[in-house]
Amino acid sequence: MVLAQLGGSISRAIQQMSNATIIDEKVLNDCLNEITRALLQSDVQFKLVRDMQTNIKKIVNLDDLAAGHNKRKIIQQAIFNELCKMLDPGKPSFTPKKGKPSVIMFVGLQGSGKTTTCTKYAYYHQKKGWKPALVCADTFRAGAFDQLKQNATKAKIPFYGSYTESDPVRIAVEGVETFKKENCDLIIVDTSGRHKQEAALFEEMRQVSEATKPDLVIFVMDSSIGQAAFDQAQAFKQSVSVGAVIVTKMDGHAKGGGALSAVAATKSPVIFIGTGEHMDEFEVFDVKPFVSRLLGMGDWSGFMDKIHEVVPMDQQPELLQKLSEGNFTLRIMYEQFQNILKMGPIGQVFSMLPGFSAELMPKGREKESQAKIKQLDSSNPKLMNDSRIMRIARGSGRQVREVMEMMEEYKRLAKIWSKMKGLKIPKKGEMSALSRNMNAQHMSKVLPQQMLKQIGGVGGLQSLMKQMGSAKDMMGMFGGGDN
Ligand SMILES: Nc1nc2c(ncn2[C@@H]2O[C@H](COP(=O)(O)OP(=O)(O)OP(=O)(O)O)[C@@H](O)[C@H]2O)c(=O)[nH]1
Description:
Blueprint: H1 2-19, H2 25-41, H3 46-59, H4 71-87, E1 102-108, H5 114-127, E2 132-137, H6 144-155, E3 159-160, H7 168-181, E4 186-191, H8 199-212, E5 216-222, H9 229-239, E6 242-248, H10 256-265, E7 270-274, E8 282-284, H11 287-294, H12 300-310, H13 316-324, H14 330-342, H15 346-350, H16 366-374, H17 386-396, H18 400-418, H19 433-446, H20 449-455, H21 457-467, H22 471-477
Parallel strand pairs: 1-4, 1-5, 2-3, 2-4, 5-6, 6-7
Antiparallel strand pairs: 7-8
Helix pairs in contact: 1-2, 2-3, 3-4, 4-11, 5-6, 7-8, 12-22, 17-18, 19-21, 20-21
């Protein structure tokens, strides 16, 4: 993912600065120049980058920093804040409510990925228990209805459209009516792609909007247009009331950073990003966790959301109880890895963990890693002698080396989890500062040293748990929570 390269360049610049014995003006300037170069390569507008550099220098006045202050941390925090500021439009988006019908209209340029994104959006909500439906009001592009129909059928989402009706307003209205009667709570209207110079198509889009009265209009934009996103987003906003933006194809284009910052400059919140052609290559976009992941600092909150999606609630307390007793078996490892596979593309999941960057799990290598996880067996490790290992290898069509590697992985994880013995499991609603500190102590034993250093030691871990793992997230982690 190209954004991972941007994050990698920024993290490396910060790391290089941290390695310097003394952080003086020159070291700081080198670091900022490196970050500037990375952002400009990502097509972020020059003025935004220059303002960011000026602001950081204003905040980080090296002469004023009294001895004893952790300059590295202050600089890192300033960079984090400025990147957040660059991507934050300062305005939340309308959020539909489960169980209450909402009409969501998708608009955008031709080929931006609207139809694909409509289905991803529907599928994402369907997994969370919503009742979405898709309406194809694109009568302009031949094959648009077939594409939507195919996507919707694959995801088992009801759809509406016509091969003969040429009036998009009529189809949109009929589709919305039909699905309101069927008690769908997320009625998604896909419209034709259009360019800002096409006045007639813009008028048609306005009419569809007027007739269906959408609760939210989502502008879908391809990240490859970079900072040109500003003009396009403005043009769409002038015709229909765009309330949110989804930026697609963030997996393949160097200009992703530019596109995101340009959209923020139009004061429209980006709510999701598309990171591939598949249905689950779709991620919630939230500025702080995004920047945190970009810099390899993790996103606990997103990670816990994923756990909620895949580990059945009734299994969570049992699992955590076993782990807190230091009781980590091969069966647990097998089941948890199976759960991880359900969480979605593995690179997406790993980038939510501090110290991991999406760069570590390049897209092409995901399949290889997933295949390794899939070959796990749930046998008792104590009975794993040579002949048993050979038999398992033969039976599963795997090399002996692979079975042994799996056993090594088990031993490594079992050792880590044995250190978690005594982990305090708070009851629902009971995440006190004391238990947070105790758990931070435990987790600091588990995390690899390099990862722990990057977070800022036990203190950094404590504040990370406090800031990012809100009480709700931590409760979820320890088996509580209610969604
Ligand atoms: N790599 C990648 N490809 C994507 C993503 N989203 C969509 N695509 C691809 O982009 C192409 C165009 O997507 P569509 O959904 O047909 O675009 P559209 O905006 O509906 O097209 P029009 O109806 O002509 O405006 C397809 O090949 C999609 O698979 C993404 O996030 N990443």
